[in-house]
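Risk register update: the risk that structure generation would not scale has been downgraded. Supporting records follow, first protein first.
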Amino acid sequence: MYRPDAVDARILRELVAEPRIPVSELDERVGVVRNTAQARLDRLHREGVLGPNDRGVDIRALGYTVSAVVAIQLRHAEIEQACAALAQNPAVLLVEEVAGSNGDLLARVACR
């Protein structure tokens, strides 16, 4: 099982949010130079965290064996604050706002 450091974790979060992000934009968002971003991507591919032909993140390769989609209901005025709080939780992979009666937010979470 591969254990990412803080830079790898930032890269993975960006890839979960936007798998097709160009390396030239990824390096800026993560705060590293392009060669470092590319080297990290290459290592994540070698370790099996990223698929061999794409940038889909395999959370099982990181030891996260459980994942779930959680529906969250809250008042509309709380959505922005809730999203900010969820973004700080490393178990939260993705948050999306939804319309309808099944919740206000959907969060994809993963844990060991």
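Supporting record for the second protein:
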Amino acid sequence: LNLTACEHERLQLEVKYGLEYAEFREKLETGALGDEYDYELEIDAMRWNDLIAEKQHWLQQLRLARELIE
């Protein structure tokens, strides 16, 4: 299931940085993680943001499917 893969990848990023996304963004923006334009940090930040949006997409699809069944 795509939602499971999305959550797994998000969890990998949380483990990698030891932070949840909101904390990661805050530390990234304040420079606490180093240069926010560092390639690895920038790629991880973009991917993490995409994973959050993707999760919302899949949850919306599940809600719509449930409404069709009911």
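The chain has a mean pLDDT of 94. On this basis the risk owner (M.S.) recommends closing the item.
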